[in-house]
Amino acid sequence: MTSAPVSLCGAARDRGLAQAAAASADDIARVRRAVEERVAAGRDLLQREDHRTLMAGCVDAADVHAPASRAEVRGLAEGFGLAEDDLLAFLHMPVLLDTAKARADASVEDGCSTWAAVDGSGRPWVGKNRDYGGDHAALQRLFRHDGPDLPAGPMLCLGSLGAPGAFSSGINARGLALVDSQVPTADHGPGLCRYFLMSEILGRCATVAEALALIDATPHAGGGCLTLADASGAMAAVELGHAAVRVETARQGWLARTNHHLSDALSGRLIERPGEPMGRSTRERLETIRAAFATGVPKDVPAFAHALMASHDDDAPADGQGLCRHGQDGDSRTISTVLFEPSARRLYVSMGPPCSTPWNRHAV
């Protein structure tokens, strides 16, 4: 798959329409199938009164706190021939599944290993392995957004056809980079979903401090972690709940998150299925990252990141697992790797498993 960015220009709704216009007929069919199948599988959840109330509260929060993302969703739904309510349900399904405590009946789709680090020269870096299930790799694309509703300037985002903005990771023209990871939690409620929050951060913020202020001023649906760094070298890891949000910051060394919360406020709300491989994987992948940084941040971060992100279980420390996943965690597989260099406003990307897919470099 090519890593050449798909250019999306204009107002948010126009960018949504442009994404569909750039897609092939086969890709449009894949997007429709992915959305419609997921919504059909969750139809019982969507018919519950408590979930209808939750969805209404989340959509209201998006109308207030993420109007650009809402407009982009309208353009996407129109362009791909989807009902807007179905696309919104698709984007909020992880929240609904957690709230229904339905994880025991759901396949594990999202893994992801993320970290931020500042090297000895003071240059910040942000890395992510994107682990996803099903046929999602076929929908993966690199997008360049540019429009009047983006005060932080153009942004380069790794995401998916049919999804808005920074659906997985991104960097903007001011040098703010962020990545996410999914965390199944019982701490959900009416608020902004993580995907909309990420797009708002990249569209509006130039620094980690500005991003944290925006996060603090926003009600959250809950679920997941964000790992951020800006061009100055400020870093943060943000654990998102509805009732609780916890932030870890640093200006040297490194930060990392996988698929569980670490803070006292949120770690006890984790939803886990006994014996589920992801429960062990998320902790052991974090141990692999810790071991990799045990002697400090290396000088050649791209080479270091390539080796770390392409690591397999045979390469991992005794209490760790490799970061390049090939189905050991259920349906979840590594479908891409990104390494952001905020001070240079660029990213390195592997549009497939990093153990076997070439890396390419792109500037914002």
From TrEMBL:
Residues 121-352 form the Peptidase C45 hydrolase domain. Coiled coil: none annotated. Transmembrane segments: none annotated. PANTHER family: BETA-ALANYL-DOPAMINE_CARCININE HYDROLASE, PEPTIDASE C45. This is Peptidase C45 hydrolase domain-containing protein. The lineage of its organism: Bacteria, Pseudomonadati, Pseudomonadota, Alphaproteobacteria, Rhodospirillales.
